[in-house]
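Final report, closing paragraph on structural work. Over the funding period we assembled a curated collection of sequence-structure pairs, and we close with a single example.
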Amino acid sequence: MSAISLNLLPPAYKNVIRREELRRTIRFFTAVVLGVVAVGMTLLLPSYLPLLLQQNELRRSLDIEKQAVGIFGLEETIKEMRAFSSRLTGMRGALRRPPVASRLVSDILAFGTDGVMIYGVAIGEDGSVDMTGFAARRSDLIGMEERMRASGQFSDVTLPLATIVRQTDIEFSLHATLAPEFRLSAGEKID
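Its predicted structure, as stored:
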């Protein structure tokens, strides 16, 4: 059984009841919206205020830096620094790999042992190598000469007989000729 409700009130009272229901509905949704806004502000405002202050401080710092650039003439300095940086970048390729002559000299110096101290190395364009140095013992000097011959880098190694007569404390001068595949090419220079 369904109950049917009939409103037997006069039409003026019926309108009053409808307006009251509408007013309560509007009031409810207004309260819900205001509550949501209040909760949102409570949750978002603590994180928003520091961001706002930081933004203002960054703007102020930017203005100060722009004024400093104008006052101290830093624009030209910045341009010079960029030009210098580009020059350094261009030089980086040349400095990355050592020149061939440096590698060649370090290879030659590697033949020395603990008992042999090499004072000087001169490499000629024709592949001639002249070395001067000091050897503590004759066996150290002869061992270095043998290693140079066995390496295959030299086609000729000459150690004067006068330098190997002494047993100890030998000042020596050695002459060698680089094998053709180890010589400097025409465009390479010794620095």
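The first strand starts at residue 116 and ends at 123. The chain has a mean pLDDT of 83. We thank the funder for supporting this effort.
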